[in-house]
Amino acid sequence: MYVEPSPTRTDDLDGAVALFVRHRRRLFGIACRILNVAQSARVRRETYIGPWLPEPVDTSADPGVGAERAEAVELALLLVLERLTPVERAVYVLREAFDYAYAEIARMLELSVVNVRKIVSRARRHLLDEQRESVDAAEHRRLLSAFVAAARTGDVASLESLLTPDVVSLSDGNGIRGCARVPVLGRARVARLSVHRPFWREAEPEFVDANGSTGVGVHRDGRPLAFLTAAASKDGIHQVLWVFAPGKLAAFLDSRLHCARFPDGVPDGV
Q1: pTM for this structure?
Q2: The RNA polymerase sigma factor 70 region 4 type domain covers which part of the protein (predicted)?
Q3: Which of 113, 130, 147 is the last residue of a domain?
């Protein structure tokens, strides 16, 4: 016997889809933060060679990510979150990104409300100890543009003027030839590393929206060479982040293709 579909069920499904679409940008940030950070420790323990960085993701189709919750997906914060325990990460994400009440988090994770409050406070303290006050989006792009311009022309003096004395450069290459396998520390050393002429020869930089902020994709003859971004405070650039690992570059290009195919972020029919 044919049964007419229930209008209530259809309405409920439509409402659920509408709710998902409305919060998709926020969910994207949370998913990236949890999944990248959760995988990082395992990867580094088992097989990774050299510094590990989270995977860059194209966010150009989601301007709201940068405007509203950029801190949820920025590479620099994802790297810091790796240092939290799994419970601290979960509690922090649920509280700071999803804005769940302490009592709700306690029920979900089977913890006491008092314990949840302590964990949130401890996680915030850990993150504040590691982070500096960031510049706004316009200043971040200006500093990154000046960095790329100086690096391409070999202007070491101009490059050093953009960096803080304690700047650190991290290169994620998973052992590929020519990629630094340890962090590079200090203004002079980072500047000299960044103007490496063979790398920039005939290379073309492209400014992209990645992980909620400005990044730079570097190509040569249409082939991806690296992804670059930086963390900066009012004192200048204090962290330079390079991704050279072929798998991560390929995944970033895939994310760009996805954004081009689905500019609203959701495939047709969903």
Answers
A1: 0.69
A2: 76-127
A3: 130
